[in-house]
Amino acid sequence: MQQLAPAGQRLVADLAQRYGVSQDAITHMLFAVLNGNGSMAQFSHPEFGGAGQWMRGGMTMVGDMFNYALKGRVDSLCSEISSVLNDQPGLLQTGSFQSQSQSGGGQSSGMGMALGPSTLFVPDPRAQWYPAELGAPNSTGSQNNLRYAYFANAHRLAVDSGGDVWVYDTLDHQIGGFSQQQGSGGSITLSSQYGTVNLSSLPVVSRNGQPFQAPPPPPPQPAYQGGNAGNSVPSRDSGDVFAAIERLADLRAKGILTDDEFAAKKAELLSRL
Asked: What is the pLDDT of residue 59?
């Protein structure tokens, strides 16, 4: 369970004084609204009439169903907590920071945009999966087995793909959203001021904290000078080509390259043998 930071403790003390309930009751309701992503709460506390439910802009239910004064107090308290949580950067999933596209279905679902760290709760060190030297992200999101963190000032984008953390150079792009096409070999695209950008087109800076070196392209091969074409001998640099293909296959397995992109790159490399 998250722990309250000093700012969160001050908020609880202030709300407890103004609403005439204990700090334990306020803390219980604070986490209930937080677990409801700021828009709803399911709670169970004796000072709020036992078990109950609140929905922003909707119906408020308390155990003492005819206690309208208590209903009004719960609704007012939860609405205020919701407003405070929505003002906390990086705390709730809001907006449409990233979308998910399904093959053939044309459906999409917003995921969430988070800006910077919250000040009400003590940060969980386990939640920071991206390199610490990048600082606090301007925005974060997640989808399926992928997580994203965008650092506008550093021109970096971190992507956690199945436990592998890749850091990309975003160049002069101002990233505003992500989209992942579902299905085998689904591609990952970004939206920027220039339009849609494929993630695979961005330079890779590091992988799991280690500098990433792209495989060098094999040197051009001399023209065929005759002989039996059916008995051609592989180039001494063929090992570099095969190693490059293996790296490309790894990128495809991580969902960073599509099947078509992998096939095109593979064909290009094999043509140099």
From this structure: 87
**How far is the C-alpha of 230 from the C-alpha of 249, rounded, in Å?**
28
Confidence of residue 227 (pLDDT cuts 50, 70, 90): very low
Helices (H), 127-253: 238-253
For the chain, give the longest Cα–Cα distance: 97
Q: Determine how many CB atoms are found less than 10 A away from the CB of residue 219.
A: 10
pLDDT at 169: 94
Nearest partner of 48 among 69, 14, 65, 25, judged by Cα: 25
Of the candidates 264, 263, 272, the one whose C-alpha atom is nearest the C-alpha of residue 238 is 272
- Length of the chain, in residues: 273
The rounded distance, in Å, linking the Cα atoms of 87 and 81 is 10
Tell me the pLDDT band of 21, cut-offs 50, 70 and 90.
very high
Dist CA 238 CA 221 (whole Å): 10
Q: Is the distance from CB of 111 to CB of 143 less than 8 angstroms?
A: yes
pTM score over 0.70: no
| Phi, psi torsion values for 165, nearest 5 degrees | -105, 115
**How many whole angstroms separate alpha carbon 269 and alpha carbon 273?**
7
Which tokens belong to 16? 């407890």
Helix, strand, or coil (residue 211): strand
Q: Could you report the per-residue pLDDT of 87-96, keeping only the tens digit for each? A: 886 666 543 3
Residue 120 main-chain phi, psi, to 5 deg: -85, -25
Q: Where are the alpha helices (DSSP H) in the chain?
A: 6-19, 23-35, 68-86, 238-253, 259-270
Give the contacts of 269 (CB within 8 A, at least 6 positions apart): 218, 241, 244, 245, 248
Interatomic CA distance for residues 46 and 25, integer angstroms: 8
